[in-house]
Design goal:
0% strand; 13 helices; mainly alpha; globular; Cytochrome C Oxidase, Chain A; binds protoporphyrin IX containing FE
Amino acid sequence: MIGAGLAPEQGPPFTAPLRFFLTAPWFLVAAGLLAAFDPGWTEGPLSPTALALTHLLTLGFLGMVMLGALTQMLPVLAGAPMPGIRPVATIGHASLTLGTPLLAWGLWRGEPAALLHGAGLLWLGLAPLLISAGLALADARRLDSVHAMRVAFVALLATLALGLGLAGWLADALPAGWRPDDPFIWLRAHALAGLAGWVAILVVGVAWQVVPMLQVTPAYPAWATRPLLVVLTSAVGVALLAPAPWRVVGEIALALGLAAFALVTLDLQRRRKRKLASPTLDLWRLGMLGLIGAVALFALPLPGEPARLAGGVLFLVGFAASVVIGMVDKIVPFLAWFHLRAGPGTSAGALPGMKDFLSDAAARGQARLHLVALVCLVAAPFAPALAVPGGLLLAAAGAVAGWNLARAARLYARHRR
Ligand code: HEM
């Protein structure tokens, strides 16, 4: 999927996805440090620190990796190269790198100027990348995974539009006729489209390709591919757009659909053909358990903000961040190895193998730190003192990931020369 059967001229230059993958872990570091030094986020999901953390994780870490991966997957998986890939990747990466901290700062400190400049920078800088990805998706192969990417892409556009609207509302910069009667409706739609429509549906669609291929499992059963996508997409649509009493039907269908996806993935992993341990497998398993836990915390009528907050942590750090780290740890060594092997004038014998770029031991150390950080952070809404070790451990896991990937990139550059 990432590059099986790939001809070098088919994929983008390695630098296009690489710059996103190398930057993303430092947003985990930033999120971890903020979570440790301002444990105020444990007060509730709408506290200023929680809002800043949410965006460091969703835009800075997940968005950075997911958009970087799209630059590789659209040409290779979907047979649809993105037009102008070099400039749009450069501009998109710069806008995420600069706009996300500005937005997070504005949310944290309640500074309207930073909020508006961050949101504006993100929109302006991401627009060329999104137009290019949209053109590629319109032209792409009709695979189930590509359909999931299309749904996720539309959800991302809705999330970004609502995010801009919310930033304008918070900064009191919206023209009179544009102000929402009830901003909570925008907030709910923004969060739902972002977390379920963009993050979850993209992971589901990518899993259909990568789980059987990288973890050598049987293929997903037919019901868990396109029919599940139809259920998830309709559920998000109903939860977003239907009249109030019906929205809960969409939410229930969404919870059941995501839980079914997690359970079937765990079952496929249990039935994998080669029973070798690997940090990627562990991270994906952790991710699926995180998804089940998050769904349970949102779906069960548990009282109070701490349970909602713990559900958010399970979703973002337990589910999404775990599978994304597992993916990046596979993609970067593979692409480095592949581009060196395919490069002019290099002979396969003299080149490092994939494990030289990132060893299992290095990836495992990072995965263990991530796991311990997750345990502390999920418990922190109930026991706020745990925010400090949880945040510091998350920052440490991010720093190790950043270091590991930078080391792989240096090895690539050395051989490239
Ligand atoms: C241009 C990009 C974005 C902007 C300008 C933006 C802006 C905002 C603003 C201003 C709020 C707070 C609203 C309030 O206090 O009432 C918010 C909340 C939120 N945003 Fe975003 N956002 C962006 C992208 C995203 C993305 C991509 C995601 C998810 C993938 C996301 C997920 C959330 C969530 C989950 C909340 C609610 C937080 C909570 O309940 O703790 N945002 N966003």
